[in-house]
Amino acid sequence: MYNVTTSEKGDKMINVTLVGTGGMVPLPNRYLASCLIEYKGKSILIDCGEGTQVSLHKGKLSMNKIDTILITHCHADHITGLPGLLLTIGNSGRTAPVNIIAPRGSTHILNSLLVVCGFLPFQVNIWELHDTKSQEFQQIGLKITSIPLKHHINCLGYSFELNLRPRFKPEKAKKLNIPVKYWKNLHNGEEVVIDNRTIKPEMVLGSPRKPIKISYVTDTRPVKAIDKIVKDSDLFICEGMYGDNALLDGAVEKMHMIFSEAATMALNANAKELWLTHFSPSMPFPDKYINFATEIFENTVVGKDLMKKTLKG
Ligand SMILES: [Zn+2]
Ligand SMILES: [Zn+2]
User: Fold this and answer.
1) 163 SS3 class
2) Same domain, 135 and 189
3) Could you confirm whether 195 is annotated as catalytic?
4) % pLDDT > 90, the chain
5) How far is the CA of 248 from the centre of ligand 1 (A)?
6) 47, 173, 200, 285: which one has the fewest Cβ atoms less than 10 Å from its Cβ?
């Protein structure tokens, strides 16, 4: 029997972990903002500030599976953990390359930083993305879209999408007398010919499904372009540098956001869930300010280090 559930198992699941939730300065129990996205045995790390590898270690998250490191921007709190992380990965005997993807103008900064690594037993590929327009590319089987943000230096927001096949409808296949041995081909989108009858996949599949979508936005003012990557996200991870609305002026000056601005974006873009991150060190207990977000967007969660969610298709 073609087991529809088993056939989809494993390839329709993304794990998202907040590796750290701090902005600017790590605190004893709060590492710098970073996020790990795991899919099919590989992972993408977003940003790598000081201490990121310690938090990965605490969370028992494999560093060796990191295929790509996406950098939002080259401020110290987002990149200075790179040499240590790469050296640790090197010590594990890794030989497969590590890709670092960052905004335009980052290569010379990253290369300067990586000089201290000395020898690494794998290739480090650095790719730059546009800083003035959106870009789409694929890594580890996920479609990634970058968009330029508004910060002091070139900074990018990212979304991650996993396409989901329509569900297989056994009742339709039975009605058409299609032998079970062809079900898998049809579910994979292939046409099959049975006794001169051409069976098209759409004859036995359900309606198209929305991709699983995650978006990640830190270090920016809330510019309109962000809506594109946040639109219909299952999980929107966004900076909330300050909680209290009274701190808006400071956020504008420092090119960051307050909770209510992140919540407004989540609401306007029809996100399902909002996780706040990248908290100011002046705000050791961000939970105290949750109301500033939830009165606008109810399904808001104040991020904590090593908070994890599995998104299934
Ligand atoms: Zn930052
Ligand atoms: Zn920054």
Assistant:
1) coil
2) no
3) no
4) 94
5) 17
6) 285
